[in-house]
Design brief:
binds adenosine-5'-diphosphate; alpha+beta; D-amino Acid Aminotransferase, Chain A, domain 1; 2 domains; five-stranded antiparallel β-sheet; seven-stranded antiparallel β-sheet; binds uridine-5'-diphosphate; globular; 14 strands; Phosphorylase Kinase, domain 1; 31% helix
């Protein structure tokens, strides 16, 4: 499959057309941003790690019956995916309080919830991805009621699969962000990425942070944390 024109350059990835109109090529970069692009930097080797970790997770989820956009890993940093029309919602699942949840509600980080929570942000950089509820999403025509139901169902399924998977790796899955898209036939599939950029991972024993919070909060050893997560996930 040939890489054709650059369609979009985002903060962490570049998206290219291919000779198949239904297939895109995603190329992962080492660029890192936080706080809606206000903090910028690079994490050496991140692109390759996030590519491989995302593809591993997408294939694991497919095996468990979750429909995803994954097609084929082409190289260290490049993957073919099914082209979707992205539903402009960031779908966030939380198992343990952290980040903006702790800040918003004035609670400590590390409170283990009895049940996972789900929340939506309107994916809009100019507005700073504001928190919205499903009624707002319907009012803004971001998705239909049926699509929102499917998205919720898949998101909780993804959480069940990932929680169990990471528990085995001695990692607590604190929270994560998912994106969904529509295939040309309207089917909703999981898209974008699942990586230390988009999940919070805490070592189960030491509670050490093994994710992008090391970059956001200047905790040091950022590259090591990404490498450690890849090692645990891919077993190498
Ligand atoms: P951002 O846009 O937030 O800066 P990225 O740098 O990760 O993010 O860019 C990747 C873009 O590609 C995102 O906007 C994401 O929604 C989009 N995307 C992810 N998967 C697909 C797909 N299968 N089809 C079309 N677009 C996708
Ligand atoms: N997240 C993400 N992209 C975003 C916002 C959040 O991948 O634009 C992920 C983030 O890595 C974390 C989870 O979603 O795993 C919840 O993030 P939170 O709402 O706490 O926001 P943050 O603290 O990142 O501002």
């Amino acid at each position: 499959m040939e890489r054709k024109e650059l369609l979009y350059e985002g903060k962490a990835k570049k998206v290219y057309a291919t000779d198949d109109s239904e297939i895109l090529l995603v190329a992962y970069k080492d660029d890192a941003t936080a706080f809606n692009g206000q903090k910028k930097g690079t994490i050496d080797g991140k692109g390759a790690i996030n590519n491989r970790v995302t593809n591993y997770m997408m294939q694991l989820l497919e095996k468990e019956g979750v429909p995803t956009h994954f097609v084929e890993e082409l190289s260290e940093r490049e993957t073919l995916v099914k082209k979707v029309s992205i539903v402009p919602l960031e779908v966030i699942i939380r198992n343990i309080s952290a980040g903006s949840f702790a800040k918003r509600y004035g609670v400590d980080e590390g409170i283990v919830f009895d049940q996972p929570t789900i929340e939506f942000s309107y994916k809009n950089d100019d507005l700073g991805d504001p928190l919205i509820n499903s009624y707002h999403a319907l009012a803004l025509k971001l998705a239909t009621e049926e699509e929102i139901e499917i998205i919720k169902e898949i998101a909780f399924k993804v959480n069940d699969v990932m929680k169990a998977f990471f528990k085995n790796l001695k990692v607590d899955l604190v929270d994560f962000k998912l994106e969904f898209g529509r295939l040309s036939n309207g089917e909703i599939v999981l898209a974008d990425e699942i990586s230390p950029d988009t999940c919070r991972f805490w070592d189960s024993e030491t509670h050490e942070k093994l994710d992008k919070d090391r970059f956001r909060r200047d905790l040091g050893n950022v590259e090591d944390a990404y490498a450690e997560m890849m090692k645990r996930i891919l077993g190498e």
